[in-house]
Amino acid sequence: MLTKPEEFVTRFAPSPTGRLHKGHAFSALMAYKRAQAEGGRFLLRIEDIDITRCRAEFVDGIYEDLAWLGLAWETPVRRQSEHFADYQAALEKLKTQGLAYPCFCTRKDIEAEIAKSASAPHGPDGPVYPGLCRHMSTAERTAKITGGVPHAWRLNLATALNHIGEPLAWRDEIKGTVPAIPEALGDVVLARKDTPTSYNLSVVVDDALQGITHIIRGEDLFHATHIHVVLQRLLDMPTPIYHHHGLMLDEHGQRFAKRNRAVTLESLRNSGADVATLMRAFP
Predict the structure, then answer these.
(1) What is the spatial distance between Cα 256 and Cα 145, in angstroms, rounded to a whole number?
(2) How many distinct structural domains can be found in the chain?
(3) Contact indicator for 226, 185 with CB cutoff of 8 Å
């Protein structure tokens, strides 16, 4: 989908692994109201690549909750589970350029390797993958794949950065120009053993295909942008303008979570809460 250069297009992209909560409402409303103010477009995307946790009832719940908030969105809604071919095409492009490699490690393999070194690098999401499969020979990789050994695909970050050959940055409406430091996340997974894609790959592909110009999302995803700008450059896709807003917290200072049923929009609605009261609690 192509957009005009001056067009403002944003999106709300939840995963149907539970009911939406107050934090989701804040993010969705922020994106929706910004699109209205800019005379732009607001898209809803269902990020349901996790086929083991995503459920149809939660997709229906997303529609119900957003409608209760007064949001309207374009149809048809893009559901990631219906577009695995798009992500596979992007992965193949990276493979062809020698920028992705198969990873046969189990979680225990990775944990054991990290435990060997007290100085193992850590990123915002925990220890960085130690690169066990990065230097495996082509013959060994081929033998394992031919033998049916389960494997994921990882980005060879060092090779990717050499391929790009220049520093990367993105524009954040809150933080200004942010230099990308993807080394903090390392060789991220591009496709999982049980799913032919990953969050990082699919979200970059989707944002480009949908013509997203502005990404409004929580600051918990700020660090992921360091990798997203790398993938955008490697795949010849545009880098949107970002806005990473603060997170809503509960009375204990913890971010809202789907597992806490007391703060879901469904439970609030069933208890008699109205949208106006909910919005007054937003920062």
Answers:
(1) 41
(2) 2
(3) yes
